[in-house]
Design a protein that fits this description.
This protein is an alpha/beta fold. Helix content is 54%, strand content 11%. It has 2 helices and 6 strands.
Length: 253
């Protein structure tokens, strides 16, 4: 077999990018070769990629397919044993390739795996989803903050209403206490007034009783004096009459 290779200096495949060796650019702008460094294929397994971007490929370079996959191209296969754009005895049908048994069975080339990062469409969708998720999280946080503020405002309003009700109750209690105290003082003043009036009335009654007793005593004395005077006059009258009788008797003698 031919041992010629690309004139390009050998380079190392970027990290995470599979390598295709013994590769060839096919007429349909796909790459056929043997893959290594892939998570989906065994090293040395023959593959054919999907159509690549651009119309050329070179060894020790990275190509990108239209589906978004990337591959590092190693040593190019410059042999002329291929036929019809596939690997003769390896990928063809009875083509007399370089296999040990002189022919190979029909082998369908496997599609090359997407082993690199997301495609632009996937990246855009992921970014859109991330923005949507972030927006939902911001909305949720804003709603939670608003609910918290509303709850705090409601708690403050309730506390203010309770405080106002407490002040009103205390004011009402003070008012009732003041009214009860005023009523008690008025009742005590009225009681003192009535007691004073009663005391005065009794004093007047006592005084009136004393005057009546004096008047009765005075009247009794006056009556006694009048009786004594009558007795004295009677005695004087009898005395004069007796004297007159004596004088008349003397004159007769």
């Amino acid at each position: 077999s031919s041992s010629s290779s690309s004139s390009s200096p050998k380079a190392k495949a970027p990290r995470g990018v599979p390598t295709i060796s013994k590769w060839k650019l096919e007429s349909d702008n796909t790459i056929s070769g043997f893959i290594s460094g892939s998570n989906a294929f065994k090293d040395g397994e023959p593959v054919t990629t999907s159509e690549i971007v651009g119309n050329s490929a070179s060894a020790n370079s990275v190509v990108r397919t239209k589906s978004g996959s990337r591959y590092f191209l190693g040593e190019e296969d410059t042999s002329a044993s291929r036929g019809g754009g596939v690997f003769g005895g390896l990928f063809g049908v009875g083509g007399g390739g370089s296999g040990d048994n002189g022919s190979s069975s029909n082998v369908e080339p496997k599609p090359a795996p997407v082993t690199t990062g997301p495609t632009p469409a996937e990246k855009s969708a992921a970014e859109t989803e991330a923005r949507k998720k972030a927006e939902l999280e911001r909305k949720k946080a804003a709603e939670e903050a608003a609910a918290k503020r509303a709850a705090e405002a409601e708690a403050r309003q309730k506390a203010a209403e309770e405080e106002a009700a407490k002040r009103d109750a205390e004011a009402e209690a003070r008012k009732n206490a003041a009214e009860e105290a005023a009523a008690k003082r008025a009742a005590e003043a009225e009681a003192r007034k009535q007691a004073e009036l009663e005391k005065k009335r009794k004093a007047e009654e006592v005084e009136e009783g004393s005057d009546d007793a004096k008047e009765k005593k005075k009247k009794k004395k006056a009556k006694t004096d009048e009786a004594d005077e009558d007795k004295t006059e009677e005695k004087e009258k009898k005395k004069k009459e007796k004297k007159s009788k004596k004088e008349k008797k003397k004159s007769k003698d």
